[in-house]
Amino acid sequence: MAGSGKLHLRLDSDPLLIVQDLVVQYKVNRKSFVSAVAGISFDVLRGETLAIVGESGCGKSTLGKAIMQLPRPQGGTVVLDGVDITALDGNDLRDVRPKVQMIFQDAISSLDPRLQVKNIIDEPLKVWKKGTAAERSVKVDNLLNSVGLDPVVVRDRRAYEFSGGQCQRISIARAIALDPVLLVCDEPVSALDVSIQAQILNLLQDMKEKLGLTIIFISHDLAVVKAVSSRVLVMYLGKICEVASPDDLYARAAHPYSRALIAAVPIPNPDVIVKRISVDGEPPSPVNPPSGCRFRTRCASASERCATEEPQLQEVGLGHFVACHHPVTN
Amino acid sequence: MSEILKLSDFSVSFDTPRGDLHAVRGVDLSIAKGESIGIVGESGSGKTVLSRATMGLMPSTATCTGTVEFKGAVISNLSRAEVRKNWGTGMAMVFQDPMTSLNPVRRIGSQLMEALIVRLGMSKDQARARSVELLERVRIPDPYAAMKKYPGELSGGMRQRIVIAIAIACTPELLFADEPTTALDVTVQAQVLELLAELRQEFNMAMILVTHDLGVVAGQTDRVIVMYAGQIVEAASTTDLFRNMKMPYTEALMKSIPRMDQSSGQRLRVITGRLPDPTTPEPGCSFAPRCEYATDKCRTEKPPLVTTQTGHQYRCFFPIGGSL
């Protein structure tokens, strides 16, 4: 897989976010580093929903946080609305922060259980001095209404009294309080029941249309991704495997890893006999990644070339890019 | 068809400060040897409580009524010490969260050998040899090294394989798998489900697969039971259920799943509202407040569980496709 290259960037269409050569490293011990994100480039157009998919440990959450400069990436640039935020410091960076907000996987633990709901949503407004107490109170009620919660019922209750789905609604209200342009959603529905999951996905879609948001949607669930995204980026061990529109990806995935991911999704129909394209085992440790293509140790079509030469992204269809020496064709 | 497990009018309630919480209400269920059953429902539908109570894994605040027969003998009136004799050799359980179901401060080897020594009376050396075989069987790479590791040194998928190895160590006749793959990645989920299916065949083991994922159920089970608010609301063979859904709840659950075979960008169907409060049961059908087909009859009268000639059961006055 997984390789480098910038062929998939659409710099002439004025993207909202341009990430180039982003590297995030964590210290393992005194001598070695692990590159959780190993030189990734991508862009997100205004109003687009970019999905980032991959297994646990592929670096997708780290990538989401690095966009927000949490922690600061070790290399590369993140250009938001024409401003390179990796070059900003102190108050300049702080001024950019309200523009990018995040929703986390575990809604229950991302809210302070002892705070009243009105204070949870009011906090960002208060920190950024958005209006008087009375104005903020009206804004909190409007936000609660917009995420489908009744302010009269919920505003004085505390976060621990709510179910997972309701907590996720409160998180969304808090995230949109400062009118962000970009919303990073890190596995927002993977802790929820299917019935609640659909409600939250529809709510995100509504918010996006109403507020003109751009969304980065991080998930390991390909079926969910297909429902919500306009472009999908498949990641493996800190690198990009494939970039495509969801319909292209599901109809004709070119990367063996994307194919394996798609084949592993259980289909709720006993008459469909799934031809399993097996990937054995689990991803190797990113501390010591395989040479060349990082997916080669689990790939059925790996050759000698894959061990020596890192594949670069190449275009295999309109807006469909793959980093593989042996892309699969239908 | 010889039955391995039979529940009759089985109910579980918990004593809480707000009053009795009825988690499982009047469940009748029988499972044949070697059969694989899926229990599906939302969080709070009572599916986990049902499986744990059957095994006798309930805290003292729980009251179970009705009977549980295991291999023809009633076990629901036995003391905990006697019920325990069935654990491991008779029935075993794989829990949802492999991070917390292993003891973090004991080596994998000792956790595996424990069951073999206690239940099967093996010597330490025999147990060690058998443990290595079990680890090989669940495809742990380098089983000798794995025996000496602590759970924290292994990934979630590996840990779930260890939990499965412990569960099948004494070749149980009935395996409960409570959301065994919910905490895992899709690729690892596919591997673990495949492993469970193989083991089931190999040991002719009956399995109760508890899950909220209809996709997992479709590929793995012979029969499916749909639970809502502690009751069975629909039960049928897996193919019959998916082709010929009767219960509006099952249909709504099915429609809310994002599907890979649908084009992208479509709005998902939702089930509005949430499960009823288990301390104050609804006067009528428990799904009526969320049901798009509900009438006044549904809101005031409780629908009985109807069985069709083909063995398809449903609890609804106005089943989809009409009653038979």
Secondary-structure-based class of chain A equals: alpha/beta
Radius of gyration of chain B: 21 Å
Instruction: Give the C-level CATH assignment of the domain at 11-81 and 181-198 and 205-322 in chain A.
Output: Alpha Beta
Q: Can you tell me the residue ranges of chain A where pLDDT is under 50 for at least 5 consecutive residues?
A: none
The radius of gyration over CA of chain A amounts to 21 Å
Q: What name does the CATH topology of the domain at 11-81 and 181-198 and 205-322 in chain A carry? A: Rossmann fold
Q: N-to-C terminal Cα separation of chain B, in Å?
A: 26 Å
Report the CATH superfamily of the domain at 11-81 and 181-198 and 205-322 in chain A. P-loop containing nucleotide triphosphate hydrolases
Low-confidence stretches of chain B: none
* Large-scale geometry of chain B: globular
- The percentage of residues in β strands of chain A lies in 15-25%
What is the helix content of chain B?
A: 25-40%
Q: Average pLDDT of chain A, to the nearest integer?
A: 90
Q: Sum up the overall morphology of chain A in one term.
A: globular
- From the N-terminal CA to the C-terminal CA of chain A, the straight-line distance is 19 Å
Number of strands of chain B: 12
Number of strands of chain A: 12
What percent of residues of chain A adopt helix (DSSP H or I)?
25-40%
List the defining traits of the structure above.
heterodimer; A: 330 residues; alpha/beta; Rossmann fold; 8-stranded mixed beta sheet; 4-stranded antiparallel beta sheet; 11 helices; 31% helix; B: 324 residues; 12 strands; 32% helix; globular
Q: In summary, what is this structure?
A:
Chain A has 330 residues and is α/β, with parallel strands linked by helices.
